[in-house]
Write a sequence for this structure.
């Protein structure tokens, strides 16, 4: 069965500092990987996704993530965090096209940004 | 971009009553919608897949008779929590893919906070 692990429940960084949120997955087939951000009162917003090809993917809001098959990881990074990035971040894994749209989510990482 | 709405955004009810939550795709048709449940500080857990014109598909461990799902049209799915109890208090989120064949086209509603007294 597929699973997603986000080892860090809470992370606090200073504004302007770099950020890395960890995500490890277990999936039987080629995974489709996603990072979502959840802000209070808003729906989950897709930051970026990896399907195939270049293992470093760029997303919105200056985020990027790197897929490392050997480590079963898909860590999210941002070079310089802004106060508005404070939110909950979820890593998710899903099936390939045609396999349905079911997503399996990690437990999330709450990001706090200190000014 | 595509928008999915939920109504109400929050609801408080007494134990034993039923509560209906609506999920609408505002600018696209959704033959499939998904219902998730999120406990505080926990992940989203898929409860069921709502299929327009047919029965919903429930995940293992989810009580079909407690969580009634109706996908009445291509833009509306409803989740009814029947005979709600305090343990049903949670954050319920729906999602819908604008293109069922592509996982990355899934859009999420803002969620409904249910509190059962």
């Amino acid at each position: 069965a597929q699973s997603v692990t986000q080892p860090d429940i809470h992370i606090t960084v200073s504004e302007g500092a770099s950020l890395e949120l960890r995500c490890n997955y277990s999936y039987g087939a080629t995974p489709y990987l996603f990072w979502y951000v959840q802000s209070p009162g808003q729906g989950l917003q897709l930051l970026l996704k990896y399907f195939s090809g270049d293992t470093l993917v760029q997303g919105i809001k200056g985020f990027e993530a790197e897929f490392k098959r050997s480590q079963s990881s898909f860590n999210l990074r941002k070079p310089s965090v802004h106060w508005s990035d404070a939110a909950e971040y979820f890593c998710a894994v899903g099936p390939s096209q045609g396999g349905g749209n079911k997503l399996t989510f990690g437990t999330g990482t709450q990001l706090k940004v200190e000014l | 971009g595509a928008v999915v709405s939920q109504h109400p955004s929050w609801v408080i009810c007494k134990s034993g009553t039923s509560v209906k939550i609506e999920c609408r795709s505002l600018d696209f048709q959704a033959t499939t919608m998904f219902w998730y449940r999120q406990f505080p500080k926990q992940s989203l857990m898929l409860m069921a897949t709502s299929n327009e014109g047919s029965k919903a598909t429930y995940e293992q461990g989810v009580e079909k008779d407690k969580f009634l799902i109706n996908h009445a049209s291509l833009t509306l799915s409803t989740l009814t929590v029947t005979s709600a109890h305090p343990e049903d208090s949670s954050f319920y989120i729906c999602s819908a893919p604008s293109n069922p064949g592509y996982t990355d086209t899934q859009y999420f509603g803002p969620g409904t906070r249910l509190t059962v007294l």
Summary: Chain B touches chain A at residues 4, 9, 32, 34, 41-46, 49, 93, 95, 97, 100-104, 106-111 (CB under 8 Å). The first strand of chain B starts at residue 4 and ends at 7. The CA atoms of residues 86 and 116 of chain B lie 5 Å apart. The mean pLDDT of chain B is 91.
